[in-house]
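Hi Y.,

Following your request, here is the sequence exactly as I used it, all 171 residues.
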Amino acid sequence: MSRTEAINSNFAREWQRLMREIAIDLSEEFDKNFERKSFFGSPWRRRIMSGRGTLLVASGRLRRSLRHSVTTRYISWSSDAPYAKIHNEGGEIEVTAKMRGWFWYMYSMTKLPIYKALGCKKVGDKIHIPKRQFIGDHRRVRQVIEQGTREWIDEQLQRIAKENNRGLNRI
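Below is the corresponding structure, written out as tokens. Let me know if you'd prefer a different format.
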């Protein structure tokens, strides 16, 4: 392996390490959004219906479902929770017969008017789900990426300087 190939191989290995470290740092930041019950300080809209726990944190399934994937070019996050996208982005969902049955069951158990109103919706009607973003682009995300990259560049420059000093000492 030539010196150039060795340098390229080391750079690729170090770059992959940087990407993994940024992914871990951002995953921790996204996880903190569940603790804050907000997206980097922008609070989630309160829920109308009562239930156990706090919205998006009741069972913890959504929070635990977030996974990151790292390549040499990008970092991406995914979730196997079927409701992750609608909560993160907001939007409309269609009422199903199963949902109506659940609303009526909840009304019979709690007598909360919201469940009665939802139970009266027709199959096919739309329900608006407000955006409660927990993951995505934000000024804080860019700060984490920039800080991690700067630290990585400093490490690489220090390593190169150390290698060059060792080479000079041999002369």
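The chain has a mean pLDDT of 89.

Thanks again,
Q.
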